[in-house]
Amino acid sequence: MPAEREEQMHQFLRRAGWGDAALAPLPGDASTRRYTRVTWGGRKAMLMDQPQAAETPAAPAEATPDQRRALGYNAVARLAGGDVARFAAVSNHLRGLGLSAPEILAADPDGGFALIEDLGDDLYADVLADGADARALY
Fold this sequence. Notes:
Shape: globular
Number of domains: 1
Number of helices: 6
Number of strands: 5
Helix content: 25-40%
Largest sheet: 5 strands, antiparallel
Distance between the termini: 34 Å
Strand order of the largest sheet: 1-2-3-5-4
Structural class: alpha+beta
Strand content: 15-25%
């Protein structure tokens, strides 16, 4: 991670009250986001690092469904691009409906950071294989 981005991350954590947290980066995936597990005072959370310029929406916001389909999969399926504000809005909306989504503990949409509930390391398929109720997990 570039030094400037790392400093921005630490500033965000300080503003969120997690400035002294221990950091443990998670392995990368195919997205432009990076995740770091943060632990402080017996609490855990996940830091989502989504640089705002790392990805852009694949279609203009005003594009019609037909225009999106003509542009391909990303224009149809990834309407928000890399946008922390939209991620937080969807999470808060789903939680408001009583559905499961990570709690947003702190967010800096302009900076591209969110501190979210740590959902743990369990894989859905493994939890189901151990006898968990699929409906309750949803």
